[in-house]
Amino acid sequence: YVRHEKIKELKPKLKIEGYKSYNGTADLYIYFFEQGYRLLKDNGILSYITSNKYTRAKYGKQFREFILNNTNILEYIDFNGVKVFESATVDTSILTFKKSNVKKSSFLYCDINEKYKKESELEKFISQNGFEYLQSDLSENSFSFSTPKELKIKKIIEKVGTPLKDWDIEINSGIKTGLNEAFIIDRKIKDELIAKDPKSIEIIKPLLRGRDIKRYSYEFADKWLINSHNNPPIDISKYSAIKEHLDKYYDKLKNRGDKGKTPYNLRNCAYLDSFEKEKIIYPDIGNLSFCFDNNKMYFNNTVYFFNSDSKYILSILNSKIINYYYNFIASTLGNGGNRAFKVFIEQLPIPKIPKEQQKPFEILVDYIIFAKEQNFSLEASLFESIIDGMVYDLYFEEEMKRGDCFISDEVREVIKEFDNSSDMIQEMYKIFKDNRTIQRGLIYRRVISVVKIINGSKK
Predict the structure, then answer these.
(1) Complete DSSP assignment for 238-258
(2) For residue 167, is it within any domain?
(3) DSSP secondary structure string, 407-437?
(4) 158 lies in a domain?
(5) Res 119: pLDDT
(6) Is the pTM of this model over 0.70?
(7) Is 149 a member of any domain?
(8) Average of pLDDT values for 45-59?
(9) CA 108 to CA 304: how far, in whole Å?
(10) What would the DSSP string read from start to end of 53-102?
(11) Is the same domain home to 12 and 134?
């Protein structure tokens, strides 16, 4: 195994050699694929077993485009989650293609999943479980494989929704300090700094990390950021207590790459004002979890965010449908979570509906946020289920109405503006629990084919 960081000085030579798949962070096997293609005669066939990371990784986009435009894929065998080589921890796949510009419409796809036993015959398993897949259903953005039923669901979600990037939002990451031990402090140190110099409070900000963020809520761990920013550069001499604190780490501060005008300053951040505005935030690793922040929280670089006051968007992002869709397009980690790269989050399809129709979603989000703050877990769970039901109504209206599971109209009839009281949470919980139309929809939807696939899929 060769880490690309160790040969980074050689990487530019690959670009000079004219590899169309070139990307500065791409794994080396990408170039072996393209070199193999170069060596093939017309209609020649190549088959490699490699890591399958190129199917979804950002660095693989040029390679995916190259494959789609220059080859006929003959087979793709995915060993995702099955350990093929004892010494290799990466998930592997076998890609077989023909060097041809005459496009073949389909190829054999097989997911070697937990049903496969190593002692059994692989060829037999593939013949029994593989199926034809259209090459035209693949995109350079991501090679996302699925059964025909799952692919149909994915296409409907994309047709109904508008990609998040087209909602006039800009996704940004939290602040990279270059030395967290110096700039991220606990309450004890914060209080000591303010006691020594009251002006310290001017540049100390509440901080969230990725691990603090949950669905619709966050758990503040009493961490604080020394925001000695660089635009314009903070003059640290005006904050004597903070300078004294940072001086303990001066050598490390001086030698770090991510710094501003002086070792005391953080790197430039063009969107620093965005931290002070309302925003939707989510962690960079793990299962999708979005929450709303209007408390001017700051974040380290394990958090992403975009400025928005739309609790409607928040409700859709936290839905089972979006989680299902995201698992198609994103890179999955070994523990089942995902890396929430900007390129994937921007693709999430959110239905554009009139403001008036967004209102019940927004009110339900207010219920959930309050219920979670008060540890009303049963109530929060029911409100989330109702949002999920309404989201199914948005994407699969025909199926929900045919199955007598459409609840959106009834929710609009009975829902009440939130008055920030526990009494209303209890009142609305009882109203929803006792409403036959809503309860029937929540129960009966479980047998609807599309709901069963989305709720039960392991993809």
Answers:
(1) G-HHHHHHHHTTHHHHHH-SS
(2) no
(3) -HHHHHHH-----S-HHHHHHHHHHHHH-HH
(4) no
(5) 66
(6) yes
(7) no
(8) 90
(9) 38
(10) GGGT-GGGHHHHHHHHHHEEEEEEEE-TT----TT--S-EEEEEEEE-SS
(11) yes
Q: State pLDDT tens for residues 366-378.
A: 999 999 999 999 9
Whether 112 contacts 76, CB under 8 Å: no
Least confident window among 61-65, 101-105, 355-359, 427-431: 101-105
In order of 280, 354, 360, 409, 433, the CA distances from 386 in angstroms are 21, 19, 10, 12, 11
Most confident of 67-81, 124-138, 413-427, 442-456: 413-427
Here the tokens at position 241 are 């207590």
pLDDT in tens, 109-139: 998 877 777 767 888 889 988 899 999 889 8
Q: Residue range 131-152: average pLDDT?
A: 87
Length of the chain equals 459
Tokens of 129: 């479980």
Whether residue 232 is preceded by a cis peptide bond, meaning omega within 30 degrees of 0, is: yes
User: Distance between CA atoms of 116 and 110, rounded to whole angstroms?
Assistant: 11
Query: What are the beta bridge partners of residue 97?
Result: 46, 73
Q: Residue 5: pLDDT band by 50, 70, 90 thresholds?
A: low
Helix-strand-coil split of the chain, %, nearest 5:
45, 20, 35
Q: Which of 160, 69, 99, 140 is nearest to 398 (CA)?
A: 160
Q: Measured between alpha carbons, how far is 111 from 79 in angstroms, rounded to an integer?
A: 6
- For 408, the domain range is 311-456
- Per-residue pLDDT, 335: 47
Q: Is residue 293 part of a domain?
A: no
Handedness of CA 145, 150, 156, 158 (dihedral sign): negative
Please give the Cα distance from 251 to 277 (Å, whole number): 35
Same domain, 239 and 365: no
Instruction: State which of 252, 276, 300 marks the end of a domain.
Output: 276
